[in-house]
Amino acid sequence: MKKQNLVIAGGGSTYTLGMIMSLIAEKDNFPLKSITFYDIDAKRQERVAKATEIILKEKYPEVEEFNYTTDKEEAFTGADFVFVQIRTGGLEMRAKDEEIPLSHGVVGQETCGPGGMAYGMRSIGDMIELINDIRTYASEAWILNYTNPAAIVAEALKREFPNDNKILNICDMPAAIMVSFAGILDKEIWDLVPEYFGLNHFGWFTKIRDKEGNDLTDKLKGHILNKGFAPEDAEIAEDPSWKKTFKQVERMLTDFPEYLPNTYLQYYLYPEKMVDKVDPEYTRANQVMDGREKRVQELSDSITEAGTTEGADLEVDIHGRYMVRVAASLAYNIGDTYIVIVENNGIISNLPDDAMVEVPAQLTSNGPKPFAVGEIPTFQKGLIEGQLAYEKLVVDAYFEQDYNKALQALTLNRTVVDTPVAKEILDELIEANEDYWPELK
Ligand code: G6P
Ligand code: MN
């Protein structure tokens, strides 16, 4: 088995320690020769990197080299895989993405609605620059991107790099949901075979089977309807916000029993309730800054100070494990099935070919081979078409620097609908993002 050289772009992320623990847990499946962190924020990255040095020394001595840098050439030269997890504007800008729409009575969310558009308009430019940098120094590296908003980023990257077949956009939400399915079914996530279709953060599981082919969908639905639904992955199981989000799956399934929904559909199907539920002065971004971010930074510091991981509360999470197994399937031509984001090209036969859709695909060293989904029903198709048009208009607005397209996008979004409200929110987002967005004319 060839040992891989891995770069984590966005090394200072709150997800990095979980990723390192996942790489350790998966070392037999995806053995590493070197790990390199790359970030534009040297200080933030160093905090995580110092702890990582100790973790690797104790738990992954097989890694021959660990480096962290803000230099692109040093980072990407020789890379086999680059995991991309950047957040343009940081959690401070996430807070604005959430607060501004909420102050107009509209869903304020990281990736859904106006917040998602604002974040998308920030992410696209940095993602394009980063991919160009990676390709300058590592023309053949696999780029696994889970930078948000993944749907908009995926659409923009497809347009900018139409011939680059080694960029794969992924989201961990379907996997995190499947961890809870597995818990209910008394199985492991890796034992389950999903059928799924949609856009990123906008999809449905149509079937869940085990590896023997037994259909477990009705059992799962019955359990959720009778006993509810809760997050089970370590990273989110105890988080009150995620608990509420998973609980809402029961409600969605009651109202629309056909398929098992992605949790993110709650923002589009119950926008009023989602607005009522949150404190506009203390949004999810604030919770994450005071929660995960603080926890990870303190954990890093305490490992560094102690010089050992002994007693440190380090956990493997599905986010990391999923990405690592995806990488392994690509690296070693394994051909396992994962839910990833790919260009439709007839997979969902009654949606446009050029849509970036989220579906199960077999992953080999030649890339993703998605499975045919066929025709989807009118309700889901209608919802998806509106959302898809919104996503495409956001990307149009970015590339064409077109105010009107941005306004059309927001007006189309189910979380907004009303044109004057869309305009007010858009104008405030433009002001808040003046350091990040292209100028809209
Ligand atoms: C899931 C989604 C990610 C999203 C994250 C937000 O993992 O798949 O796309 O960024 O949740 O979680 P947070 O705890 O930061 O609100
Ligand atoms: Mn996601």
Summarize the structure.
The chain is 49% helix and 16% strand. It has 16 helices and twelve strands. The protein has helices spanning 16-25, 42-59, 72-76, 90-102, 113-137, 150-160, 173-185, 217-227, 240-255, 266-269, 271-277, 284-306, 318-331, 378-400, 403-412, 419-432; strands at residues 4-9, 32-38, 65-69, 81-84, 142-145, 167-169, 192-199, 202-210, 260-261, 336-343, 356-364, 367-370.
Structure, described:
Helix content is 49%, strand content 16%. The protein has 441 residues and is α/β, with parallel strands linked by helices. Among the domains are: 215 residues, Rossmann fold (3-Layer(aba) Sandwich), CATH 3.40.50.720; 56 residues, no CATH class. The model has no long low-confidence stretch (mean pLDDT 98). The site of 6-O-phosphono-alpha-D-glucopyranose (G6P) has 8 residues, from helix 12. Homotetramer. Belongs to the glycosyl hydrolase 4 family.
Total strand segments: 12
Work out the radius of gyration.
Answer: 21 Å
In N-to-C order, the SSE pattern is EHEHEHEHHEHEHEEHHEHHHHEEEHHH
* Low-confidence parts: none
CATH class descriptor name of the domain at 4-171 and 286-332: Alpha Beta
Characterize the biggest β-sheet.
Answer: 6 strands, parallel
* Bound chemical compounds: 6-O-phosphono-alpha-D-glucopyranose, manganese (II) ion
Helical residue percent?
Answer: 40-55%
Query: CATH fold name of the domain at 4-171 and 286-332, please?
Result: Rossmann fold
Shape: globular
* Secondary-structure content class: alpha/beta
Strand neighbour order, sheet with most strands: 3-2-1-4-5-6
CATH superfamily of the domain at 4-171 and 286-332: NAD(P)-binding Rossmann-like Domain
Q: What number is the mean pLDDT? A: 98
Alpha plus pi helix count: 16
CATH architecture of the domain at 4-171 and 286-332: 3-Layer(aba) Sandwich
Strand fraction equals 15-25%
What distance separates the N and C termini? 53 Å
